């Protein structure tokens, strides 16, 4: 007797030498595939409110980028955007995914742009949620500091001093949305000290965002969704990205901050469905 494949399952796959955690939501395997890529200091948890709204129309694969979420926190991995994009591409190739819709939030948006540039035939459309853009490499003094033994303790102290609630207040416009479940979900990956060691390496590995010239070469149809009150990646960055990406459209929501999948799940889903299923 054949066992039915579960509609939702977690798995790991070794890619570029480290174990990558991913989640699959599959009510109907014949549906098109949507890939969800989270942002900095986040995980697949950030998509918890839109996955239930999208899984009737898509087979969803949500990935924990290294070193975040449940993915291995290696100190040997090179934490460049190019390598993170390779993780996304190789995972999808091994899962035999084609013509995927790529959704990236914040830093995950920049990783998605790298992936679309590297392997455009793999993705039929992309959705950028408050994507980072035009950021340069870290300052040389910070890169130098990352080589100092126990520099990771400085990163841990700095993040701890901010506190999870304060960090969430920076990314969410309506603070009433911040509850214990949200705080616990974003805090959980940081109980492992290895993440701070990996972040120390990330400071020197991150090569900066794609240039205007590179963006203009990305022809994947793209939808850019923003929050008007975004303090992390201001709305003017989204408007500029939309101008530089040749086949893109832009929409923003009032009274909304950086964490649009959490703050406006229904509105974000509606825009995604209109864009992808048209």
UniProtKB/TrEMBL annotation:
InterPro entries hit by this protein: AB_hydrolase_1, AB_hydrolase_fold, Epox_hydrolase-like
Entries under Pfam families matching the protein: Abhydrolase_1 (PF00561)
Keyword Transmembrane appears in the UniProt entry: no
Coiled coil residues, start to end: none
Domain spans labelled AB hydrolase-1: 32-265
GO MF, one annotated term: hydrolase activity
Keywords: Hydrolase
Keyword RNA-binding among record annotations: no
PANTHER family hit by this protein: ALPHA/BETA-HYDROLASES SUPERFAMILY PROTEIN, LIPASE-RELATED
Protein name (Swiss-Prot/TrEMBL): Alpha/beta fold hydrolase
Organism whose genome encodes this protein: Metabacillus herbersteinensis
Organism lineage: Bacteria, Bacillati, Bacillota, Bacilli, Bacillales
